[in-house]
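Dear Dr. V.,

Thank you for agreeing to look over these. As mentioned in my earlier message, I'm a first-year student in the group and I'm still getting used to reading structure tokens, so any feedback on how I've presented them would be very welcome. I ran two proteins. I've put each sequence directly above its structure. The first is here:
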Amino acid sequence: MRIANLAERLVILDADRALDVESASSGRFSSDPQAVYARWGEFTEWAAGQDVSAGNPFDPRVLGPAVPRPPQIFAIGLNYAKHAGESGYAVPENPVVFTKFASSLTGPDVEVTLSGDTVDWEAELVVVIGHGGRDIDEGDGWNRIAGLSVGQDLSDRTVQFWGDPPQFSLGKSRAGFAPVGPAVVTLDEVESKADRDDLSVRCTLSRPDGSTEMLQDGRTRDLIFSIPALVARLSAVVELLPGDLIFTGTPEGVGIGRTPAVYLRPGEVLTTEIEGVGTIVQRFVSED
């Protein structure tokens, strides 16, 4: 199942069709895309019996952030060994955790204003919590996941490295710097197409001159802290809540790790694809 936020309404997607949940359930479930996680088990049981192909055609450009108002957003830094190396850091012994503030969330096919000339890309698998809690055992980690989505941890490196030590969260929370979508894909849907523990994560840049470049090409099997491990390690400190997001980290290939460093420019288009989950697109424009 693929659930999404279509013009601020909760829908279930099937190819080019969208089934409006509030209408199809005769009001049993709210139109609010965020509210569904508090009733996740009840919702998935109901949704399993729906004919989504009976939904209406939709414009993908109207899709909003798949999870629009998460209670908490956790972002994991340096969670691939080669990315840690290109960033000049040792492989961490514990998860490196920061946040992307919720006001930075945006949809999967959007125009993003560059805040300057040091905006970087970071393709990431995003995890959505279905059943939260504290002190969750790693072996139970996958059972707490509502689904997976595609994200970009866009980063203003100037703001990120304002001081010493650096502070991450503000530089990663400009308007539009947290695109997530196009849908939240349940694990059974992912597993019908791929291995949930070994998903391809790819990021491609298209330039105004028509040239393209594969910027990142990684696999989630190379995560230092796996998804179940992140659920366990985070919940050992904080309570995970239904609808929380976890940006799980980015593979090697970011702009700041290149010599010389390379950053996004107006007119460029970034396409991020995760196997079995989906594709998101950002078109970049200048502040002017």
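The second protein is here, in the same arrangement:
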Amino acid sequence: MAEKIEQQNGDNEAMQASQLAVFFELVSKGLSHSNVEVRRLFHGRGKCWPGLEQLTCDWVASQLLVNLFKPVDETFMCTLKQGLEELSTSDVWRNAQGKAIVLQHRYSDGAPTEVLWGELDSRPVVLELGCKYQLDIGRNQNFGLFLDMRNGREWVKEHARGKRVLNLFAYTCGFSVAAIEGGAEHVVNVDMARASLNKGRDNHRLNDHDTSNVTFMAHDIFKSWGKIKKYGPYDLIIIDPPSFQKGSFALTKDYKKILRRLPELLNAQGEVMACVNSPSVTPSFLIDSMREEAPTLTYIERLANPSEFADKDDDASLKVLLFR
């Protein structure tokens, strides 16, 4: 589910205060090219920047959201906060019209958030590819939209016209918003979390979508496929599960259970977007599993991830694969 379950790769690298100059250089460069769209400005999790593997930074509704994924020493923390304070007085920050700088400690229970400068808008509406999304900053680890999946949402928007779409593990329905915006005939969103689906309904309303063309199904797919099958057959099926969810989803075992259902859910010319974001699972897992469980489907291509999510090991990054 994109960054839903945080990548564990890089957890043993020591964070180095001496490398923070690189972080501030890249964040400043990103701010100087910033626009109204939500965007990642720094992605240490891809392990391309030694000593900064547990640090990310996002531009969210004119707010800078800095995330730490593991505890750091006092020197690193002081250097980071001092640098962010200096950034708040810079011409780059003023030109970007920044409103707040926030530090979220993702390694701690509840992911506590510190407001270092300005006043946090914890429920901003952001833009991506012309669509609006309601976020929720500071209350949870994830704020409601996985930025590394932007290219996937763009592909869906461009290929959804006139199609019936099934969106499995829908979360806050980002794919659904993109599909309806792109002219989909109907989208069925399935997720166990009713609260997430309610946020998805709000996202559709933000975009003035006719929600009579959208179904929100709070349902455990492993208990029954009957309700889902009733709305089919589908022209496009999107599978974007968490890497692991205790008690409900184990990726390598349960993904195959979904794939073997595809032939009975899809139209003859239907397409599948299969996603996985576990660093321990390579694209070949999806390709081989599809060949075993749904041999009528053929692998077409892997979508590129947004350039700002560069990863030292491409196989460890988000994998978005298309089948037909």
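From my reading of the second output: The first strand starts at residue 39 and ends at 43. Residues 147-323 form a domain with the Rossmann fold fold (CATH 3.40.50.150). Does that match how you would interpret it?

Kind regards,
E.
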